[in-house]
Automatic annotation (TrEMBL):
It comes from Ancylobacter radicis. Keywords: ATP-binding, Cell membrane, Ion transport, Iron, Iron transport, Membrane, Nucleotide-binding, Transport. InterPro entries: AAA+_ATPase (IPR003593), ABC_transporter-like_ATP-bd (IPR003439), ABC_transporter-like_CS (IPR017871), P-loop_NTPase (IPR027417), Siderophore_ABC-ATPase (IPR051535). Residues 10-246 form the ABC transporter domain. SMART domains: AAA (SM00382). PANTHER family: IRON(3+)-HYDROXAMATE IMPORT ATP-BINDING PROTEIN FHUC. Its main location: membrane. It is found in: Cell membrane. This is ABC transporter ATP-binding protein. Belongs to the ABC transporter superfamily. One of its GO terms (molecular function) is ATP binding.
């Protein structure tokens, strides 16, 4: 199944996306569950990043449409879209001589108008975003002087400062050590539960997706293999179809979360 059970604001309807004459997504329909943390899983080249960019309105469609609140994405201005959807790409870029605080401040751009002064609210939102991602102590540091993990957390802080209701994150735990991976994933889950955010994130770790996500969408070769709750999706048959692996599914004795033990 590919339909979400519950309210839906963002939806892909039979979209087809391709590059250089080759389709990457094939008539794919996907309803993003609102107020939930959705993890996109699948092997390399399965179309996860392409789907994320299509949902953000950044990829031309060969067929179908993506709608937000019932409106086709092209009907919305870029500023209006940025107020509602925030995308963190897989390899974001910024000058190395930009300070962390200045990078985070760029997240406020959609909410500011020409000649509007920087407000106390803007600063408070930026400060809170840096605190949540544990980069508040790095505010004056230049991006070029950060480790890969510190830089990744600064980018996530900028994404949070955008204050969009829908966050689309492409591999948000890249470059992070295991402790910071868990911190960021726990933060995303709290943003959903405490602030009512809707989050879609590309992840590679099946067990992280099972533990932190409310909803999992499995992709392979541009099509959805299965979509549903972690308990429904983390099953040997689904993982075999998507990843061509054999897996034993255990359950954490502490909280019952499914745990995948994979083998070829």
């Amino acid at each position: 199944m590919s339909e979400a059970a519950g309210p839906v604001r963002l939806r892909a309807n039979a979209i087809r996306v391709g590059y250089r004459g080759r389709d990457v997504l094939h008539d794919l329909t996907f309803a993003v569950p609102s107020y939930r943390f959705t993890a996109l899983l699948g092997p390399n080249g399965s179309g996860k990043s392409t789907l994320l960019r299509a949902l953000a309105g950044l990829t031309p469609l060969r067929a179908g449409e993506v709608t937000l609140d019932g409106l086709a994405i092209p009907m919305l201005s870029r500023r209006r879209l940025a107020e509602m959807i925030s995308l963190l790409p897989q390899t974001p870029r910024a000058p190395d001589d930009l300070a962390v605080a200045d990078l985070v401040a760029q997240g406020r751009y959609p909410h500011r108008r020409l000649f509007t002064p920087w407000s106390l609210q803007d600063q408070a939102i930026c400060n809170d975003s840096m605190r949540l991602t544990d980069v508040d102590g790095l505010a004056a540091r230049l991006l070029g002087r950060l480790s890969g993990g510190q830089r990744q957390r600064a980018w996530i802080a900028m994404t949070l400062a955008q204050s969009a209701d829908i966050l689309l994150l492409d591999e948000p735990t890249t470059y992070l050590d295991i402790a910071h991976q868990l911190d960021i994933l726990d933060l995303l889950r709290r943003l959903v539960r405490e602030q009512g955010k809707t989050i879609v994130a590309v992840l590679h770790d099946i067990n992280h997706a099972a533990r932190f996500a409310d909803h999992i969408c499995l992709l392979k070769e541009g099509r959805i293999v299965a979509s549903g709750s972690p308990r429904d999706i983390i099953q040997p048959s689904h993982l075999r179809e998507a990843f061509s692996i054999e897996a034993t599914i255990l359950h954490d004795p502490y909280d019952g979360v499914p745990v995948c033990v994979a083998r070829k």
